[in-house]
Design goal:
Layout: E1 3-7, H1 12-23, E2 27-31, H2 47-53, E3 58-61, H3 70-84, E4 88-94, H4 103-116, E5 122-127, H5 131-141, E6 147-150, E7 154-155, H6 160-172, E8 177-178, E9 188-189, H7 190-201, E10 207-210, H8 215-221, H9 237-244
Parallel strand pairs: 1-2, 1-3, 3-4, 4-5, 5-8, 6-10
Antiparallel strand pairs: 7-9
Helix pairs in contact: 1-6, 3-4, 7-9
InterPro entries: ComplexI_NDUFA9_subunit, NAD(P)-bd_dom, NAD(P)-bd_dom_sf
Domain NAD(P)-binding: 8-132
Protein name: NAD(P)H-binding protein
Length: 252
Amino acid sequence: MTTILVTGGTGTLGRLVTERLRTGGHEVRVLARHAQPYAVDLIRGGSGLDAAVAGVDTVVHCASTPRGGDEQAAVHLIEAARRAGVAHLVYISIVGVDAVPIGYYKAKHAVERQIQESGLGWTILRTTQFHDLLVRVFEGMGRLPVLILPAGVSDQPIAVSEVADRLAELAVDGPAGRVEDMGGPEVRTFPDLARAWLRATGRRRPALTVPVPGKAFRALRAGGHLTPGNPVGKGTFEEHLAARYAGGATAR
């Protein structure tokens, strides 16, 4: 039995990874800002981090935020892992972090490089966006009378549960370096995905596609965030929507 630390272990992905590892018989510690006994803010670091990694064989690094600070958090985690003699650091990243010039993607790519240069044994998995993210995007758009969608952009959403399964597998194996990217089962246009969300929620909205300028959207239109050659996910967006809105949604 190995001792595994999951950072961001109370989040959407980290919680599922933790469950799977515990089901597999491993001792799992959860590190999050408000999760006792390992309540640590990775961006700030501190002595609590050393206690969290002491005696740990593997760290699964799921903690991340688009609000900034991922690179500093990685510095603190890597330093603590070195002091503790951690053998394996597993990191979840995003397909396209090296191709799409978005601030959050650039930070994730920088963390990849930090891990690769850390001197620790490491594994990095990149996946496409989770179904949940698209739902949040559409729910935000749905507050307006018209859905405004970026023209020419597609997505390849994947079930977070499938990513959790893969991360748990990687955590109990040895360091594997950069493993094969993991994408959802289908590449779908944004209007197509939006129509699926509208049907599932019973909302009625016209959808308008508009061209969006800039390098980031040029990269998205080129499919820099997609991995059509690796459609390993099984769960579809419609299946996710059916489960999420099983209790019914009020049309608005």
